[in-house]
Model the fold of this input.
Amino acid sequence: MHLVMVGSSTPSHVYPSLALIAELVARGHRVSYAVGDRIASVVAPTGASVIAHPTLLPDTDGAWPEEIGAAMRIFLDDQIAVLPVLLDAVTDADAVLYDIGGFAGRVAAHRWGVPAIQLSPTYVAWEGYEEDMAEFTATLKTSESGASYFAALRSWLDENGMAIAGDDFLGRPEACVVLIPRVIQPNEERVSASYSFAGPCIDASRTSGWTPGEDDDRPLVYVSFGTSYTNLPDLYARIVAELGETYRLVLATGKLDPAEFPGLEAARNQPQLDILAHADAFITHAGMGSAVESLWFGVPTVSIPQAVDQFTNAAQLEAIGAGVQLGERSLPDAVLAALACAPRAREVRDLVRAGGGTNKAADAVERLVA
Done:
């Protein structure tokens, strides 16, 4: 079977499904993966045939627009440009898999007359979602950038013979495999049974063999704010000043120069999976990838959300007892509160690992395309 995967060209959208793609290849499926050229090398080790294309999405050092509508428009314009590349490169697809931002995948599947399965690395819509989000959506659609976005989306769908409403195209996939555990899904009891929850697909190829040295027996606190929201010099300085003596800090500094943190284990990128396997606490922006990985390893979190879905994720982590939000706490108090969540974090870890993973996700894909 020839499966075509259409990704969004940012690490947080690519990493969550890499192990699934590799498993589908291992099961004998031919997989073609359309993704931005600058991240193609991340996808290649899965064994998929990479369809590399230019991307309009900002790289990890770039800045996203502050207006939500303008940021959404970048994703849309990127996918509008991807569609002709995809249609030229593929002539024999049996089914399409696509990231939540890989809109060209759903459109291409319609053009080809084949099934389309969304792979969601974040939470999905629940029954009543539109009503719950009505005020936000109305504000977005009446903003200049939001109105422009939805007009462009409608025009693109019309050009490709898709009568589906724009809101349904964005939020109601025909089929979906959800790559997060149910425990972190908001309003889980109201999510349709049509969504297949597989849970995290942890990619073993992202491990490096890192282990903490034996010369420091202080609790290990890992600090990372993902790939996009790391230009936080004051916050990093505060973390080091308030926690550096009591805890062993491992810092992923992103856009900040690690040389600014002498004497500490600091690098722009860290082997996150290896570190979480040893960490006692995780100071995080609560991006969904990091949130899910904290649950997989049973590491309690101190969440300091910066944007988009991070506030919802942080609230969910706190609600299930797997961490705390910094809020008005001091950093030392927040870390102590997180450490007190360790028993519950380990309970959730066991639930998450028992709930599925890569094989369950691959089974779901095969069932949905059969």
About this structure: Residues 2-199+356-369 form a domain with the Rossmann fold fold (CATH 3.40.50.2000). The longest helix spans residues 68-89. The first strand starts at residue 2 and ends at 6. The chain has two domains: 2-199+356-369, 205-354.
